[in-house]
Fold each of these.
Amino acid sequence: MSIIPNWLYQLSSPKNFYRFAGIASNWCGWIALFLLVVGLYYGLVNSPPDYQQGDSARIMYIHVPAAWMSMFVYMVMAGSAAVGMIWRIKASSAFANASAPVGAMFTALALATGMLWGKPMWGTYWVWDARLTSELILLFLYLGYMALQSAIDDRDTAARATAILALVGMVNITIIHYSVEWWNTLHQGATVTKLDKPSIHLSMLIPLLVMAMAFKFYYLSNALRRARCELLERERDKLWVRELVGENNSE
Amino acid sequence: MSEASLGTAFISLLRRDLMLAYRHRAQMLNPLLFFVIVVSLFPLGLDPDPDLLRTIAPGVIWVAALLAAMLSLDSMFRSDFDDGSLEQLLLTPHPLPLLVLAKIVAHWLISGLPLLVLAPVLGMLLNLGSESLFPLLATLALGTPVLSLIGSIGVALTVGLRGGGVLLSLLILPLFIPVLIFAANAVGNAGAGMDITGQLAFLGSLLALAFALAPLATAAALRISLN
């Protein structure tokens, strides 16, 4: 008997993961779309403007979830890459590799929306503030991960090499997270994660959380779809892929 | 032939690397020359105003040190990879992380330690006050080993690749940033008469962390690269 549940064991085979990812990706995509519409409506139309920042504060509904996701995706990516490396699970490595471009996109989005917000609020697009800088470093980490991945021809070697890089980068993520507390700077502190009493009003918090969930489901949908493609490419000599391609050709 | 003990293996590997570096003295000096030249370009490019130079000196010296470390890192495993001795290293019965550590120590002695000797001279060129010289040396002493340790992971990942040098800088420079921030900040603060124990403690803990983890990651990366 293994400590790993049987269903999880079966899911880890590329063939089963491919089928599962196809279904899950569609579902997550539709849920993301629904949440996005609801969240954007409540965020842009139905919530009050900020008493200091006016309507500019509404960019927060994109910016904050994107910034959360930039960290979250990196952690999922590193964890998934580590699982793929340790237990040699191809589906896990494929998911890690598929996460990198999505995470890089969220990071770029967080930076871009932050700059757009910074111009009217701080009077400048860019300041060398700790959080902005660490977000930029995070983008570099994603780009380095993707560069290493594309530099190694053999996909299995690439997966294991990038896993090490991602784990090394995880140490850096920790430093990024605490940088806000270490350097006392321009960027406002977190307002949601203070558990005892969030300093954000409920009418703004709810659309924010809905948007965060929408981004999460979008990430799952997108990354699963990419992972499917990667698995097909990696396993192109295997029987199940040939059968799959044969099925589609004969139709 | 009887099996050498771990200590003997460590020492002989360290000796071998130092000997190799000594035999190629000119190659070893190039990153140091690069360090000096980069630092001396800044007054030419900016303005030889002493106050401006004093302000930018910590950052300039540290950025130049990072770039010099990048240059010298590339050769850490390259020649061993080319002539096959790296594979032999992987086949020894000794734990690979410790053997890797010997190579990292050798690399630091060759490339990091000379920076410590050169830095005060460059500090004077950039009009850095005498109160900043000791902090500069302290940050270099704590920071450059971190560069060698973290850098070794990147070198091990890129050792067999085409165009590994550029890729190496892309992978490793972002990881060097915390060292740069704390070190340059410490030297700058010391110039302003502020306490720098915090930054030094931070650099020390980064060194401890890198010392404990980097050889393990490097060893794993080498096994993957040479697979």
Amino acid sequence: MTTIVALILQLVLVLLLSPLTIGLVRWFKARLQGRLGAPPWIVYTALLTTLKKQHVISENVSWVFRFVPFAVLGMAAFLVLSLPLLFSNGGLPQIDLFILAGVLSLGSVFLVFGGLDAGTAFGGMGASREMTIAALVEPVALITFSAFAVVAGSSSIQDVFGNGMSVFSHPALVLSFAALVLVALAENARYPVDNPATHLELTMVHEAMLLEYSGPYLAMLEYASSIKLTVFLVLLGNLIWVKPSAALAPEAIGLAAAGILSTLIVGSFALALLESSIAKMRFFRLQEYMSVAFFLSLSGFILVFLL
Amino acid sequence: MSFFIPYLLFASLSLTVISGIAALGGRAMIFHKLSQIFLALSGLLGMAASVAVFLSPEIGMRVSIASAKFSPVFGLDLFGAVFFFLVSLVSVLCAVYAVPYLRSYRTTYHLPSLNALVAAFVLGMQIVIVSTGPFPFMIGWEIMSLASFFLVVSDRSAESVRAALLYLVMTHLGAAAILAAFLLLAQGSFFADFSLLTNLAGTAPAWVLPVSFGLFLFGFGSKSGLVPFHVWLPEAHPAAPSHVSALMSGVMLKIAIYGFLRVTLFLLPPIGTTASLVILGFGLLTALYGVLYAALDRDFKRTLAFSSIENIGLIFTMIGISFFAASRGLEVLFEVVFSAAVFFTIAHALFKSGLFLISGVVVRAFHSRSLEKMGGLSKRLPVFSAFFCILALAAASLPPFGPFFGEWMFFQSLLGHFSLHDPFVNAILLLTFAISALVGGLAIFAMVKLFALSMLAESRSPENALEHCERPAWGEMFSIGVFTLSVLLLGPFAPAVMALIRGEAAVPSLWLLSVGSAAIQPSVLLLFLFACVLAVWILRRLMSRVEHERAYHRWDCGAPVNASMEYTATAFSAPIRFFFRLILRTKKSVDVLPVLATNPWIASKSFNMNLRSIWMDFGYLPLGRFFIGLSLQVKKIQSGNIRFYLFLIFAALILTLRIAL
């Protein structure tokens, strides 16, 4: 019973906070770039408005196009339910890092299907790029997660991210943590891999796949990507200073929720700072990014054994 | 009932023969149907026989001639039964598929000979598995190889003949190597059965074992498509009719794995660290090259063939790791990874056969094997495309489908055995882990490319608007559906399957897989994923109006968009081609011919890209040129002068006497 209550609490909290993350990133970015910026909570109204709007469905699409938003948002919900975000043993106890990597890939795969189904060149371009990124990020994610698993002594996600293991308590993880940051940037289509604020064909990856979607489906897909960003920020935060609550007591939950909120604020500020200070990479230079990430994760793994 | 069990195996083999004979009755469709019915019956009996062995593995099954002095020639133990079950299952479903499928190709193929050859092919594979000595083993092997050679040429095109000849050469080099290895081990007694051979191998001279291991690795490796002996595979598998491709890729490769495991597990004494590292190295190389070409290729069936090479590479990687573990005394790692390899072999047989059956329907709809001409089939065949989607995701080893759990066990056991004591073991495991992870990522790319470019968007060939495409008949849909269902169910039932193949080390209970400290309930994972998607579906119904939608043309920047503007397979895989150009060395050229001398911008341009195979270009072709050059040199002694020939005969005689005496 307590598990179910914990799961619902975690689900509600993350689902409520995730649009705020996107809003905060945009607001910080605007401030850092000398603009006034829209208030962070405008994302909520934007999502609700999109949800109420009429669908425009292309005449050229098949069932796959309609199935994609459900699959992508479903995978995002799976992440929220199975990871230790608010509670240290939140979610299914048996979810391990391989399933996490697999579910992340599954989400990308469906997004790619959606991008290709309408048959426009934009969607195809985004799909091809996204698939390349997803295919090359998956090994990096696996190796990085494994390094954490070796240190934690268990491959269970709860033991890796939920038990208060941090970069400070295990300095050997510093390279793996850096690799995980690169994975998070690539998975969430942020700088320097993708520019989330653009609709220019040369630069966009994630947005190009959403181009055909409108109304509730668009809202679902955007919501899914905000959930994914939130989850990644919280996971990274767990590795630095935040501890998920171990029990279902009000003070502990309050502390953990405050931890999540502070992670999101600091994380979105860091992300905005990064996106304001570097340029997006040309897509064909991502080879270097991916190689750096791959060898960083590999050296992180080796470092775990050396130290 | 128990009275019949010993005869199941015999009946299964006989029905395969009868199926071949029935096919030769004539060109009438009734003989075609009869042949498939007998083949399906043979498969069903074969499945029953395998199940009987699963239930009582200690006894096994023997086909013997009563009161004869000969030891039984045919028998089935638990290890063979796993593979016999696969052969039987796939041949049943291929037979059901072939009834309508071959009807649409009755002018292309000569049906009586095709069906007879398929029966011979299946018979060959059955004999290989049930034989208990090298002699019947080699006979079965040859029947299988020759039948499949003729099946590859069955459409009689020049391209197929080229592919088949390459296949014939490679497969016979392999067969010769296997035969030589058996002869070396037997030390003169060729009619020895495997158990005697095991004893002989124990007393063999020191040099025999490594040599015969190398010969076995080459022989079985060339049959199963191990890089660099794989060059025939992407040519031969696609050239055959699709249900034969399914048999070749889904089962024949497994027969090679069966043979390799049979000799390394049961015949040779435990192989050492070096030999296991050789297997591992070949496995990793194969997986990496297979998956890269699978991601790049623009031909539907060739992509599947390359993906088979990749999967075989992974299986050999797992085998290599498990032997490595055995040689290092890591007993648990050996057991779990070995049963994971067998599990992945089963999974591969299911999804790859299903995908090749799908390729038959797809190729028939587009009248082409090129992905550049495909697209848009999911609008016309939604159920079919849903089956394809599940099989493709399963082939990409994504959760929650069966193959994922094979890889899961493999990765988990690698992860659980990183020890702090032995840097050598750590290095090997880490290298394997990293390359396998990279291969896993690229495999997703290859499968997504295959599904998305053939099923989604619109047809890329303007002359073929899919208006009149032939719909899959019920028999085809049935077989594809059964394969789809089986990869779906292989997930939740993975622990049960593992228990069946005696991988108890990883199965604490019937619904739980466990490796080291990690445990997983595949059925819960499947339900959980479905529940998440279902919850989203319900919430969307509650939160927004469903009917509130409008059909309109797609986003087109104000100018009409047509199918020629779609992303093609070449474009889709361009990033991978670019990122891995150092390994792949693909050749791309754009030829610009000016039309007007005055204006260089008005020019006709032609684009040319060659996805060549570096093994062909830098390995086989130079080798071929060397041999042709050598034989041209040798030809010089053919002067036409009879006295010179007499001298040669005399010299040969002297030389023979010199050696003999």
